[in-house]
From TrEMBL, chain B:
Location relative to the cell: Cell inner membrane; Cell membrane
A cellular component term, taken from the record's GO annotations: plasma membrane
Transmembrane segments: 12-41, 81-101, 113-137, 143-162, 193-212, 243-263
GO biological process: one example: transmembrane transport
InterPro entries reported in the protein's UniProt record: MetI-like, MetI-like_sf
Protein name according to UniProt: ABC transporter permease
Organism: Rhizobium leguminosarum
UniProt membrane topology term: Multi-pass membrane protein
Length: 275, 273
């Protein structure tokens, strides 16, 4: 009875191997392709160019800044969920899903309105007399981070909420009864409890931020270039596929390294890991 | 609860932090969606916010078949691709879900990461890889190639949604059906699929929404003639900050909201024991 499952799984498995694993292997192969066999030339070309290297550093920095930002915004929302009753919890899940399922281009567009010269931020600054003339945060890294933090926020909230919804509320009562204040409970009980969710969220946020082509291009503008634009430029206008592949592999590796590092961290703390 | 007559200030600070700052974070999360939606009803010519007046002119402009011909084609392409991607995901992911429930746990645990792998990879990298291979075999970018890419990247969403439901099912239900003499097809049609339906519907919704919104795969796999909606919006934003983008956004937000509300009706929220 139990042995009959495999034929059902086979089509999707073949799809995954043939159309997902194979292209990736080809991509990696391509990045080493040279006229006389394997070569590191494309990687050398990428890292040898000071501009490219700066773009890579900028992309990693953007990813890390967004991870920090989403954590600072996400943890309070998770706490609100933890202390909230049934109704508040339902509402919070709903309010997290709306932006998460709303098109990325729509959210990017919303930030163009917010950050623009005639947007609410500019109006507020002028109204408060902080700036004499309308200011635009478009095409600045600050504006991009503000947008990225909102766009990727659901990715960190959902894993946190998933953990907290499975945790009985009585967990903190023991600490409360023994006289621990709320801050102490937060630091010693709730934060360690949330850590696996944070780790999962950080990976998702970093991967999402470092490859969010549209938001980077539109809000970052022409002066703030990140790795995805670099890849697209090499493919779309310069037709340098081996170099584009090498850049893509570097992008993958940077996300992969973070994944491995965080996984090892969570194993090390003997936490139950779950993707 | 022992009353230890502690200093009440930390408690108040904590409450202020959770409810005050937490509330502000929620506003930060949701406000942009509200702003995009209200922007679409502006009567002005620009993206000035708050809008000067209320009008439906940008929706009218968007629905105008002459003025927005390009947008209509892009929307139609996107809907076709998303519909076909859902169909493709059904064909591959639903049998896989059923098959996995019939396997030994250890075997299933080995195979599952292979099925879910596409969810972890930045889809931009996948788009490039798929383009290289397609080119190698001699496929040119096209609508169909885009659909194939979407099925590979978003199929796992369908699998994950359906398998969440499948894991909660009692296998003896299907067994009972076969024992009572139902053919395997009958069992599938009358027992297994109806039970999996909430997961399948949730998966279909997710695949549809993600496919409709995808830029990074379509960027590489769609040909010049197959403009998709998000890329068209991207172009409108880059070129002219056309306010019609706000109207498209308004429609997309409405679709998402309606979909979510329907989903909540259909999928009763999982009760936490």
């Amino acid at each position: 009875m139990k042995a009959s499952g495999f034929p059902y799984v086979l089509p999707m498995l073949l799809l995954s191997v043939a159309f997902f694993a194979t292209p990736l292997a080809v991509l990696v192969g391509f990045s080493f392709a040279g006229p006389g066999g394997a070569t590191l030339e494309h990687y050398a070309r990428f890292f040898g160019d000071a501009f490219n290297f700066r773009v890579l550093v900028n992309t990693a920095r953007l990813g890390l800044e967004t991870v920090i930002g989403t954590t600072l915004l996400g943890v309070p929302i998770a706490l609100l969920y933890w202390h909230g009753g049934r109704n508040l919890r339902q509402v919070l899940i709903f309010l997290t899903l709306i932006p998460m399922l709303t098109s990325n281009v729509v959210r990017t567009f919303a930030w163009i309105v917010i950050l623009g010269r005639q947007g609410p931020i500019s109006e507020a600054l002028v109204g408060l007399g902080l700036t004499g003339m309308p200011t635009s945060l478009l095409f600045t890294e600050l504006g991009l981070i503000m947008a990225m933090c909102q766009i990727d926020l659901p990715l960190i909230i959902l894993p946190l909420i998933a953990i907290l919804s499975r945790t009985p509320v009585q967990l903190t009562e023991a600490a409360q009864v023994s006289g621990a204040g709320p801050w102490r409970i937060f630091v010693t009980v709730l934060l360690p409890l949330m850590l696996p969710g944070l780790l999962a969220g950080w990976i998702l946020v970093f991967a999402s931020t470092s490859s969010s082509f549209v938001t980077q291009a539109v809000i970052g503008g022409a002066r703030n270039v990140y790795v995805p634009q670099l890849i697209y430029r090499e493919v779309g206008t310069l037709f340098d596929w081996p170099l584009a592949s090498a850049i893509a592999v570097v992008l993958l590796l940077s996300t992969g390294c973070l994944l491995v590092a965080l996984t090892m961290m969570s194993r090390h703390r003997r936490l139950v890991g779950h993707a | 609860m022992r009353d230890r007559r502690e200093n009440p200030i930390p408690v108040m600070l904590y409450k202020a932090f959770v409810y005050g700052f937490g509330g502000l974070c929620v506003i930060y999360l949701v406000a942009p969606i509200v702003i995009a939606l209200t922007m679409s009803f502006t009567s002005g010519q620009t993206l000035k916010y708050p809008p000067q007046g209320f009008s439906l002119r940008w929706y009218a402009a968007l629905l105008d078949p002459v003025r927005s011909a390009t947008e209509h084609i892009a929307a139609w392409n996107s809907l076709k691709i998303a519909g076909l991607a859902v169909l493709g995901s059904l064909i591959f992911a639903v049998p896989a879900t059923i098959g996995m429930t019939r396997m030994k746990r250890s075997t299933a645990g080995t195979i599952e990461p292979l099925l879910l792998a596409p969810l972890v990879l930045p889809s931009l990298v996948y788009g490039l890889a798929a383009l290289i291979v397609a080119n190698f075999i001699g496929f040119k970018p096209s609508l169909w190639l885009t659909v194939a890419g979407h099925v590979v990247v978003f199929g796992p969403l369908m699998y994950r949604a359906a398998s969440v439901v499948a894991q909660g099912l009692n296998p003896s239900l299907a067994e009972a059906s076969t024992t009572m003499g139902a053919s395997w097809f009958m069992t599938l049609r009358r027992v297994t699929l109806p039970l999996l339906m909430p997961g399948i519907l949730a998966g279909a919704f997710l695949v549809f929404i993600q496919s409709l919104d995808n830029v990074s795969v379509s960027l590489f796999l769609a040909d010049a003639r197959t403009t998709v909606l998000p890329l068209r919006m991207f172009a409108l934003i880059e070129e002219s900050l056309d306010v019609r983008v706000a109207a498209i956004s308004g429609i997309l937000i409405a679709v998402t909201l309606v979909g979510l509300l329907v989903a909540r009706r259909v999928l009763a929220p999982p009760r936490q024991a």
